[in-house]
């Protein structure tokens, strides 16, 4: 009997309600504002790498895509996005990789991302990942070519965000 009561208490109290999930997302910028911010950061990374490590002609190969949010599955207006995949057809040389990591570390600080962590760090193949407090991630990798990909965390659609309630719709 005690075990059954304990199970019910833990089971019922462990999962946030839809109201709690919505409240959490209401404290974040809406998905459009978050996307614009991460796109600015992505542009800054590309521009700084090109300016400081040599010419890099970045090309976007995949458009922005949208998806739901597993962590906020009860909120229908919750959305995450994968920003366009940017790449250029050459690798960052091993002797410049530490400078590339220093550049993104500096940019990370301005945007609230954590220290980039190496997922791969071997001669001719490097990849780092960084995360911000809202669950956004980006990966910068280099091998045969170099890629930069961002994923937002979960945010409310602009039309569902309480901060936008008083704004006129277009």
UniProtKB/TrEMBL annotation:
Where does it primarily localize? membrane
The record's section on InterPro entries has: LppA/LppB/LprP (IPR032018)
Which Pfam families has this protein been placed in? Answer: LppA (PF16708)
Q: How does it sit in the membrane?
A: Lipid-anchor
Where in or outside the cell it occurs: the entry states:
Cell membrane
Q: Does the keyword Signal apply?
A: yes
UniProt keywords (A-Z) are: Cell membrane, Lipoprotein, Membrane, Palmitate, Signal
Name of the featured protein:
LppA-like lipoprotein
Species, as recorded: Allokutzneria multivorans
Taxonomic placement:
Bacteria, Bacillati, Actinomycetota, Actinomycetes, Pseudonocardiales
